[in-house]
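queue> holo job accepted (nicotinamide-adenine-dinucleotide)
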Amino acid sequence: MSARLLEGKLLAADIKAGIKSGVESLRARYNVSPKLVSIQVGENPASAVYIRSQKKNAEGLGIEYRLERLDEGSPRQALIEAIDKLNKDRTVNGIMVQMPLPPQIEAGFISRYISPLKDIEAMHPQNMGEIVFGNAKVLPCTAAACMELLNSIDSLDLYGKEAVIVGHSEIVGKPLALLLLNKFVTTTVCHIATGERGSLPEFVKKAEILIVAVGRAGLIKGEWIKEGAIVIDVGINRVDGRLIGDVEFEKAQERASYITPVPGGVGPLTVAMLMKNLVEAFKLQQQLYT
Ligand code: NAD
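queue> job finished
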């Protein structure tokens, strides 16, 4: 068997076309374009690529994009104040803070200062909590991207399927586990302790749906993949100047039924999900203000 590719790039193009026409009708109705403001503290070169991609994507969809910069040495309070100003500015619909942040600011706490209504990365505890109840209006982008990929498989009925997620981060593994549970998928979450105990192969071998978000090239061996499994590789690793995922792609492709390429799988969908959240946030705010 050779797995079919789950190409996020193609799916993202479809989703973005829908967002673009949605933005046009919102502009016609409210006479204003949705606006996203991104805050960067310092000038980490790793963020530059993401910022360029966000700006290009936003502007291509008719969304206004502005980058606000704070000095590298800014204290946590300066960032909180900048966020608060944007929270109060009715012309701003979405706020995001670029990662990584300099060491004096703990990243995990910053999302709670963004108004839940403008939290387009869906990392505010209130938005996270809504996922538990299956009521979330915005979803963490990478977790949502994984769900979009699964939903794009016509023949897949998620009900009762057995999924294994490797990685339990706040941005991917944990929210994804809840999204899968909400669809009645029997979900197991593995993490560093599973790896250290040596039981990772045992769990992976049982997975009908395998989603890996660790950041270690080749962590998941091709021979562990269950015949016919769906494999979503979120990992991004730069090895010898090339981007590769966490799963041994060629060997896994021989056993899986569907697999995401890296790059071109989850990544392009993540930014589409961000823009989708922004449009949702814009609509929620218009309902509140008018
Ligand atoms: P993180 O660094 O916050 O967490 C890593 C997770 O992997 C943790 O749960 C940890 O316990 C687990 N882990 C580490 N070593 C392990 C091992 N040996 N066995 C099993 N589990 C192990 O991760 P993150 O921020 O979710 O990112 C994970 C990867 O996904 C990275 O490569 C990141 O670049 C990539 N990523 C991609 C996108 C995208 O849009 N494609 C978005 C976010 C993250």
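queue> The radius of gyration is 19 Å.
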